Amino acid sequence: MDFRLNCDALVIGSGIAGGVAALTLAEKGLDVIVITAGETLYVGNTALAQGGIVYRSEDDDPRILEKDILTAGWKHNFTRAVRFLCRKGPEVLKDVFLDKYQIPFNQREPGDWYLTKEGGHTLARILYCDDHTGRNIMDVLAREVESHPNIRVLTKRTAIDLLTTQHHAKHLDFKYSLSNQCVGSYVFNEELGKVETILAKHTVLATGGIGQVYLHTTNTTGSIGSGLAMASRAGARLMNCEYIQFHPTAMFGGSKRGERRFLVSEAVRGEGAVLVNSKGDPFMKRHDPRADLAPRDIVTRAIMDEMLHSGEDCVYLDTSGVKKDVETRFPTIYQRCKQIGVDMKKDLVPVVPAAHYFCGGILVDNRGRTTLDNLYAAGECSCTGVHGANRLASTSLLEGMLWGHSTGQDIASRMTKSAKLGRKLNDSIPDWIPGRDIHDEDPALIAQDWARIRNTMWNYVGVSRTQGRLNRAFSDLRKLTKDLQDFYSDTALSKPIIDLFHGSQAAYIITLAALRNRETKGCHYRAD
Question: Which three-class secondary structure state does DSSP give residue 198?
């Protein structure tokens, strides 16, 4: 088997951003490789998205959406990126998702879409597929990606490191060059236990979020910040890494230790549900005039404050104010509630906050370009500047789709007839050199190290932060990262080892960013 592969574009990740990027590239005639850590393309957070994707209503205007995004983001947003999303996003959504791929969003009749409203939005402008919007999007994208003749899908592959000319090329012309470019990635083939060298003219990171470095999260197991860690080691600039959004309403109960918490979509409150305490009393109006439809950072802190003062382990959602039939409107949530003995039609739904979305990441422009030549990033691993200090509900799918599309368009426009890497550069990149492999992986050590990371992040770098907590987290994670560096170099390579290495570095990066920012803003809340 050939462990050295070449392509025009390598896409690392298979969610909405990676899928749209790969299809855009393939339709332009490029040879694309998509790698995914799972056995299928359904391994990321896109398939879990319940609420919907921002579109536009008849009364809407890009300036209204822009104002909503800036308000939610505490005006820490990059205005140029926000305007790009507000003006270009709905247009690309219509062309790609409605007209081309015909995603089955709910509609009254053909072309007459149902639109819902969520927290922080002035108007109802969100397209949805019941309460499993992301799953419907992934059904279509996965089918299109897997069937496209210009795309090779490599499953059970884990990216180890990005390949760059300054770090990896042996030829002195590249080592002495003032420019540094990404030329692909070392990739672990889990089935064969071997490392592949995938060389690419352009590389797209679409690796998703970081939620799994926290004790409680709504994210899938692969959301460990691998793209963040690899980009940092390669020298790409990062931005806003302290801004971690905690979703206010993850289900309390029904999850085993280490499993993701089931998300109760914000759309439930958008349809009329209200948050109440154990006595059944609504409390959000005491915290914000927008009550249950305030932005997520405000709702999350209000819930934590309510739990702190009441001594309760959770708060509750009262769905009696939802005018639509909850079983029909929210079938997935309804069934999950039934599994823990809760009937949404008559019972209160127990909820708690959980780490949900990474508002920062690898800095990119509106074309998806990073500060490292020929490296792109899209989706949750990137920082476009759209979200600022806090994300507005249902903007993430639109951002992932738009930047995936923009990335594909920009790469295609830069490609020449000689799309592959030149022979001198190709021959200059060595294959993976194995470490000493003194030890086999020890599951007990790996589990304990993950427990240290997750508890440290939840307790010290969570919803509420102080200088003392952050100093403790920084000290603990710095030592752990150093220990893991030695462990990594002496242990036989495996997916659990690679994931732990990425996750520890991502946690350290987030903590350092939080430590450096003493200003409370959005979802970075300094209690001191």
Answer: strand
Set 125, 261, 296, 469: catalytic member? 296
Q: What is the pTM of this model?
A: 0.92
CATH number (domain holding residue 512): 1.20.58.100
Mark whether 39 and 69 lie in a shared domain.
yes
**Do the domain assignments include residue 524?**
no
Residue 437 covered by a domain: no
In a shared domain, residues 261 and 390: no
Query: What residue has token string 């790009």?
Result: 84
Q: Is residue 117 part of a domain?
A: yes
Regarding whether 253 and 237 lie in a shared domain, the answer is no
Query: 219-253 pLDDT, tens per residue?
Result: 999 999 999 999 999 999 999 999 999 999 999 98
Are 118 and 293 contacting, i.e. CB atoms less than 8 angstroms apart? Answer: yes
Q: What is the DSSP letter of 367?
A: T
The pLDDT of residue 258: 58
**What sign for the dihedral angle of Cα 190, 228, 233, 384?**
positive
Per-residue pLDDT reduced to its tens digit, 471-504: 999 999 999 999 898 887 788 899 999 999 999 9
Our answer to whether residue 296 is catalytic in this structure is yes
Does one domain contain both 112 and 173?
Answer: yes
Q: How far apart are CA 122 and CA 227, in angstroms?
A: 34
Do 382 and 505 fall within a single domain?
Answer: no
Please say whether the beta carbons of 337 and 343 come within 8 A. yes
The residue range of the domain holding 463 is: 443-492+494-516
470-479 long-range Cβ contacts below 8 angstroms, 24+ apart: 470/511, 470/514, 470/515, 471/515, 473/511, 473/515, 474/508, 474/511, 474/512, 474/515, 476/452, 477/453, 477/504, 477/507, 477/508, 477/511, 478/508
Q: CB-based burial of residue 410 (10 Å sphere; 0-12 exposed, 13-18 middle, 19+ buried)?
A: middle
**Please, where are the H alpha helices in 210-288?**
226-234, 266-270
Rounded to the nearest 10 degrees, the angle between the axes of helix 396-414 and helix 133-147 is 20
Greatest CA separation for the chain = 71
Residues forming a β-bridge with 38: none
Report how many domains make up the chain: 3
